[in-house]
Amino acid sequence: MTVLTASQRRVVTLGWITYAAFYLGRVNLAAALPAIQSDFNWTPEQTAVLAGAALWTYAAGQLINGWLGNRLNIRWMVFIGLIGSALLNLIFASLSSLPLMVVSWLINGFFQSMGWGPILRTLSDNLSTAQRQRISGVFGASYIVGNILTWALTGWLLRFSNWRLLFVVPACLMSVFAVLWYMQNKQPTASSAESTPIRIADVPPVLMQFWPMALTALVAGILFNSTLTYAPTYAAQYLPADQAALAATAFPVFGLIGTVWLGSWIGRRSTGNALQTLVVLLILSAASRAVEFLLLPSIANSLILLALMGITAYALTNQPLTAVPLLAYSDLGTSTVAGAIDAAHSIGGAAGNTMVGVLLTAGGWPLVFGIWTVLPLIAIGFVSLAMRNRQVSPMRN
User: Fold this and answer.
1) Is the pLDDT at 274 greater than 70, yes or no?
2) Is the dihedral of CA 147, 150, 152, 154 positive or negative?
């Protein structure tokens, strides 16, 4: 049965809202970066160090907190994650030193990693496989809506010419959502295979199944996070900082189409084989980035490009991050699997953010888009290897 009961809808809604709230204390940095760089007269390389900082600790935290999410109290883990991130945002707002700002954002990344895996576990514990399949696309939209609303809020706050507000206001809102999560999440965690530990002897076979997905997720992370971080900077070529933050919402807004519709639509036409779906999404991702070389520089064309990249990047990201942990490997522990794949995705994002800063200095946006176009084509090779690996079973959306 795929129809959700009232209590199941409550679990999904609370998890959806809570994870969207995590993005208040994460993507606000992207909107603030142009103003921070201008305020302190930093180089693109210095900005890139800060832009990629949290993703390294987020990746490490996903491995740790994803594993802990199968064993500890989820109610407390998610609450601590939101409150801790809110506190680090407040600390960041008070700083003016690059090293200290990097350290605070590194710690913030760890607290941010307490959300995704544990929240996915609540879905796995409370929903059947058919129900998880039904809501996987919609649930993936939670981080997109969180992204959109955060950038809309930060764009409005930038009108007051104080980038520090972009960290103070979200911190206050995150604290409210943390209390809401703690007060409303009263359903006990179900006892299931989620609590079954993975033996050391099981690790090599699991890695044999995971490595193609991990490398694909790493490339998806480069494409997704580096665009997410630098979308306001890209738009700032044509618009003032406050308007650029609002214009950059074209990336996540159109990402909703990719998350909710495109991935599922392709999946249905590839008989539910996730690897075939990934190949198609990688081709579309490369094509969308290559459009940059066909368009004349303008505000309108930059919005078109951000929209195309949003549709493909979010669809490419949602499949390994949401569908795979909920459907393909839930028997290994949804939180653990989600943490491992998200870690690979975040490592890619961290490397991608640093890469963009270096490439902008070396050759500007044409060089960035050139690399962005080639990487998905390389990732098709990873997926092709997975297809030839008899131990990798088709994963269904």
Assistant:
1) no
2) negative
Is residue 206's pLDDT more than 80? no
**Burial class of 121 by CB neighbour count within 10 A (0 to 12, 13 to 18, 19+):** buried
What is d(CA 7, CA 123) in angstroms, rounded to the nearest whole number? 12
How many other CB atoms are found less than 10 A from the CB of residue 343? 26
Q: DSSP readout, 301-370?
A: HHHHHHHHHHHHHHHHHHIIIIIIIIIISGGGTHHHHHHHHHHHHHHHHHHHHHHHHHHHHHT-HHHHHH
Which pLDDT band holds residue 392 (cuts at 50, 70, 90)? Answer: very low
| Domains in the chain, number | 1
Average pLDDT over residues 169-185: 94
Report which of 299, 260, 258, 305 is spatially closest to residue 281, judged by C-alpha positions.
258
Say which residue the tokens 């269904």 belong to: 396
Q: What is the CATH number of the domain that holds 211?
A: 1.20.1250.20
Domain-embedded: residue 2? no
CA-atom Rg of the chain in angstroms: 20
Reported as a single tens digit per residue, the pLDDT across 247-265 is 888 888 898 888 778 877 7
User: Quick check: is 98 in a domain?
Assistant: yes
Per-residue pLDDT, 327: 60
The encoded tokens of residue 223 equal 């494409």
Phi, psi of 82, rounded to the nearest 5 degrees: -65, -45
Boundaries of domain holding 100: 7-195+202-388
Confidence of residue 397 (pLDDT cuts 50, 70, 90): very low
Confidence (pTM):
0.74
For every residue of 125-189, DSSP letters joined together read HHS-HHHHHHHHHHHHHHHHHHHHHHHHHHHHHGGGT-TTHHHHHHHHHHHHHHHHHHHH--SPP
Does the structure show a pLDDT above 90 at 20? yes
Residue type at 303 in one-letter notation = L
**Residue type at position 306:** L
Q: How far apart are CA 358 and CA 339, in angstroms?
A: 28
With contact defined as beta carbons under 8 Å apart, do 313 and 321 qualify? no
> What's the pLDDT score for residue 125?
82
Q: Is there a domain that residue 217 lies in?
A: yes
Query: What is the average per-residue pLDDT within 84-97?
Result: 96
Domain assignment present for residue 1? The answer is no
395 pLDDT band (50/70/90 cuts)? very low
